Amino acid sequence: MKIQWSLILALIFALITAVFAVINVDPVQVNLLFGSVSLPLILLILGSTLLGGIIVGSFGIYRGYRLQREVKGLHAKLVHIQEATGYIFPETEKPERGKKKKSAENETEPGTGTEPVEEDSPITNP
């Protein structure tokens, strides 16, 4: 859900930026360190927005790479600790999708001959 809201906000921001850029089409003088250039303001606005998006995207990619590397390192430490101590995580039982989970009261173990006993009926041993 968070990704969807981020996408919607990004599209709204892009629309506002595009409308703002289309309104401002007059040429402007841009002073650089080594000289000056005359550009239409629409190109300057769109170029600055694109450059900002590239910078933010590269920081996001770098952060994801760094976190992925940290997760791999922590996983390697976990495996090392498990091998050193012999500890094994207990596996949790995950029910299959679309099927109801069987309760322990209604199951019979194969080969034991035991049937589930209702609570109201008397228990007799043969």
TrEMBL record:
InterPro entries: LapA_dom. The chain crosses the membrane at residues 37-62. Keywords: Cell membrane, Membrane, Transmembrane, Transmembrane helix. Residues 89-126 are annotated as: Disordered. Residues 116-126 have a biased composition (Acidic residues). Residues 24-83 form the Lipopolysaccharide assembly protein A domain. Pfam families: LapA_dom (PF06305). The keyword Zinc does not apply. PANTHER family: MEMBRANE PROTEIN, MEMBRANE PROTEIN-RELATED. This is Lipopolysaccharide assembly LapA domain-containing protein.
